[in-house]
Write a structure and sequence with these properties.
alpha/beta; Aldehyde Dehydrogenase, Chain A, domain 1; Aldehyde Dehydrogenase, Chain A, domain 2; 7-stranded mixed β-sheet; 6-stranded mixed β-sheet; disordered N terminus; binds nicotinamide-adenine-dinucleotide; binds the ligand N[C@@H](CC=O)C(=O)O
Amino acid sequence: MAPQTARTRSHFQLDTPHLWREQAWLAGHWTGARETLAVTDPATGETIGHIPSLGEAAVVTAIDAAAAALPAWAALTPDERADRLLAWYAGMRQHREDLARIMTLEEGKPLAEARGEIDYAASFVRWFAEEGRRAYGETIPSHLPGRHLHTLRQPIGVTAAITPWNFPSAMVTRKAAAALAAGCPMLVRPASETPYSALALARLAEQAGIPGGIFQVITGDGRSIASALMRDTRVRALSFTGSTEVGKALIRQSADTVKRLTLELGGNAPFIVFDDVDLDAAVDGALAAKFQTSGEDCLAANRILVQRPLYAAFLERFAARTAALRVGHGLEPDTDIGPLIDARAVAKADQHVSDARERGARVLTGGKPLGGNFYAPTVVADVTPDMALFREETFSPVAAVLAFDDEAEAVRLANDTEYGLVAYCYTADLGRATRLGDALDYGMVAINCAKLTGPPIPFGGVKQSGQGREGSRHGLDEYSELKYICLGLPG
Ligand SMILES: NC(=O)c1ccc[n+]([C@@H]2O[C@H](COP(=O)([O-])OP(=O)(O)OC[C@H]3O[C@@H](n4cnc5c(N)ncnc54)[C@H](O)[C@@H]3O)[C@@H](O)[C@H]2O)c1
Ligand SMILES: N[C@@H](CC=O)C(=O)O
């Protein structure tokens, strides 16, 4: 089956049409299937293509290929693996515009944000190409006479990843680059809503000389692919980014084969604004932290807490700026907010707003669906902890704002959730900033800034937001085993 048609070529206007793949990259072959899944542009509802719906047999083929490729890949020097990863990185840089366009078509995010995600995704490949050289062990002063003790890091084995639709490239490379740099093959199953970004990455990996068994992309139903992965004892580690609900199901399924799981799950980020800050800086930060990717971001500010003396002024300015955001197709140059991923996401946003209204909150701007998968950028004031907007991740352009009186109350409200991914706070008081860094029960805390991610930082959550860390030097550890050697010295 030809992966591109004349229609898709002209329609999508890719400079390099062969990056648009409608087959899975399995065991070094572009592979189709009789059954397919349709993929739609969330902005128009139009079908943009079909991908193979592969099942358990294909997963076994992929694991066979990965297990066969593992010894030779693990035996390469870190420099040799780095060369392949850097070639992959170069391909991503070269095709940045096409990759961004593919992402906007399938995910809906504005093109400028998609370009930013491609840069972000590529940066993990470069980071881990370098970091693979530093998978150090250690020597241990011996407690036993006549012994030398040391540790070394070895590749864990065949690995797999299940990735979400909201960051269709970065969630693939943050996992795969770490696994490959550590000497492991990785089999990726991307979300069925956004498979084309991952398939384009597979095409670039192929061109970079990464062996077919080392990086594979398999498309199809998540549940059956996950259960085949979980059953197979050769798969030693699985990294999942997605909802807490599915993460919990994967923990249960992994028990029988005792796999290592890295889980990047849901969030419910507080964004705390104290009354000693520059109001414009805090409003800029809140807009950035709330509305990126239409609010469909695990790091999105889900609850904006403002100290009472600043509350009215903050609401006025924040609502005015929110009302000015332009909603549209992500390929339109002026778009700030794209569509939500599907009708279910729109219904959830609207339910959260109705629930808040019924419980006494005020809708200052937006608060309604705009047709199709679009929802108006919304500010809801006077939110209380009993509202769904406070308790659940809304994953939409709906901002929930509430007032607090003092630092103790802010911390109590912020920590009143089972999630613990990221917290933001704005304050001019250094002592308070330090105390908040300690007291907020989150894996990541951003103080006086909204942008905090990148390859050098350990990304991850506590409580029900997940386990393990991605990126940074710690990201390699998820894909290696720490082995201890006790060497007895003759005589
Ligand atoms: N912490 C992070 O780094 C991070 C990053 C992005 C998204 N997320 C979270 O992801 C969620 C939104 O993404 P989503 O709606 O795609 O989540 P989701 O859990 O529904 O889906 C995530 C992935 O799992 C697959 N999947 C669904 N059910 C499955 C099952 N039973 N077994 C195996 N795989 C299954 C999906 O097809 C998708 O590929 C939000 O909660 C968000 O916070 C977290
Ligand atoms: N925005 C996150 C992904 C979560 O949805 C990131 O920066 O990695």
